[in-house]
Amino acid sequence: MDIREIYKDTGISESVYEYCESVLETLKERFEKIDRIAEYNQLKVLNAFRKNRVSAEHFAATSGYGYNDAGRDTLERIYADVFGSEDALVRSQITCGTHALCVAMSAVVRPGDEILSPVGKPYDTLEEVIGIRPSAGSLAENGVTYRQAELRSDGSFDYPAIKAAINERTKLIEIQRSKGYDSRPTFSVEQIGELISFIRSVKPEVICMVDNCYGEFVETKEPSQAGADMVVGSLIKNPGGGLAPAGGYICGTKECIDLAARRLTSPGLGREVGANLGTNPAFYEGFFLAPVVTAGAEKGAIFAAALYEKLGFEVYPKSETERYDIIQAVTLGSEAYMRAFCEGIQAASPVDSFVKPIPEAMPGYNDPVIMAAGDFVQGSSIELSADGPVRPPYQIYFQGGITWYHAKVGIMMSLQKLVDAGFHL
Ligand SMILES: *Cc1c(COP(=O)(O)O)cnc(C)c1O
Q1: Do residues 380 and 322 both lie within one domain?
Q2: What is the DSSP code (8-state) at residue 185?
Q3: Which residues line ligand 1 (CB under 6 A)?
Q4: 54, 67, 142, 401 - which has most CB atoms within 10 Å?
Q5: Are 80 and 86 in contact (CB under 8 A)?
Q6: How far does residue 353's CA lie from ligand 1's centre (Å)?
Q7: How wide is the angle at C-alpha 104 spanned by C-alphas 381 and 43, nearest 5°?
Q8: Closest Cα to atom 14, ligand 1: which residue?
């Protein structure tokens, strides 16, 4: 077997291959640490399956109202156990991460309440949910106000500013764990825990919600184990393990989850309704695989960081930095390189490898967005994908890869396309 031959057949030149392998040589210790975390989390998930006595009956499809759906209810117990929360809502009826966050926020605020983000501006799509950008049906239209405390220039929490922003109307604290499309640090669970403790010392009764997108299983603890009342995410990111065809989750206190269920379905119905429509096998198996899938994606992010850093590009986070999510930003400096990078990711995809990504306007986003993804599940970003708003400094956000080897070849192909576009190794 000659591994170089198959890379050559895949379209990776010898010089790109050699360069990438030399970078990988330096990452062995990093990867070992990631494997240890994956091992820990694999057992955590396995133990939750065992404790909840998962059996074949839990994989059965339900229809109609979905009353007495043992598979759905048991999966929610498993999520609660893994996240160390009292309760959980895990549903295919939650259409995406933004919807999960919208349900969670809308569930707990009432007219006259205020939402505070203590970590600067929230994720792009939440601007319309909250009404930071005016939008029909937003929380702002329903009499909910919003405030944010900016991070300090070094990316740390500005405690005096946070304290000053908390008032008698502050009801909900929205903490985004991952940097999203921003240039600021992703916060560790420990840091989030400190932030929540501080906020509770100012106003004990606020509800603290964490947007956990892309953070699940990167550490051995989740923010619900550091004081968060609600932790929210998408099943087509880490916890779906690449298999969940859609869906979102909210893990949290009994009270918050009950309110969220009432918001998702209806007051009076709550969590009792919501047929699983056959999604359970994928939800269960995907969650079971998620620790290892997340680890592969994290390796991909670190590989991309180390590679592009060595090539002289600005990367964020730096390759040596401790990671708390699976997103890697690379500042490519021009639309042309952004396109080339995305062409590489696309060409290395199992689905739609022949497609050429082009920037386009997207609902919920301010600028045109370029996206590369050849997904089994549409838009799934635990699968190998790259995207970014096309605006200076032309930063691409790379994430995913349901196997490490796929993430690896995707990154190699991105460099190959840059070289093809005139970049000199
Ligand atoms: C992806 C993401 C969201 C929104 O999730 P969608 O599934 O795209 O709606 C929200 N917050 C963060 C930090 C994200 O990464």
Answers
A1: yes
A2: P
A3: 96-98, 123, 125, 176, 178, 180, 211, 213-214, 234
A4: 401
A5: yes
A6: 25
A7: 55
A8: 213
- CATH number for the domain that contains residue 83: 3.40.640.10
pLDDT for 300-344, tens place per residue?
999 999 999 999 999 999 999 999 999 999 999 999 999 999 999
Cα of 98 from ligand 1 centre, angstroms: 6
Nearest to 272 by CA among 80, 73, 86, 74: 73
Whether the ω angle into residue 160 lies within 30 degrees of 0, i.e. cis, is: no
Q: Which residues 6+ apart lie within 8 Å of 341 measured at CB?
A: 330, 332, 372, 386, 396, 398, 414, 417, 418
Residue with tokens 């792009």: 124
Model confidence pLDDT, tens digit, residues 197-207:
999 999 999 99
Same domain? For 199 and 148 the reply is yes
Same domain, 306 and 194: no
In the chain, the number of structural domains is 2
- Report the predicted TM-score, pTM, of the whole model to 2 decimal places: 0.95
Strand (E) or helix (H) holding 264: helix 254-264
Q: What is the largest CA-CA distance in the chain?
A: 68
CATH number at residue 370: 3.90.1150.60
- Phi and psi for 108 in degrees, rounded to 5? -110, -10
Nearest in space to 77 (alpha carbons), one of 60, 58, 63: 58
Q: Are residues 276 and 315 in the same domain?
A: no
Amino acid at 358: I
Give how far the C-alpha of residue 165 lies from the chain's centroid of Cα atoms, to the nearest Å: 27
| Ligand 1 center–CA 233 separation, angstroms | 7
- Taking the CA of residue 123 as reference, the ligand 1 atom at the shortest distance is 11
Ligand 1 midpoint to CA 387 (Å): 12
DSSP 3-state of 331:
strand
Same domain, 70 and 81: yes
| pLDDT tens profile 160-172 | 999 999 999 999 9
Give the integer Cα–Cα distance in Å for 305 and 332. 12
Please indicate, yes or no, if residue 53 is contained in any of the structural domains.
no
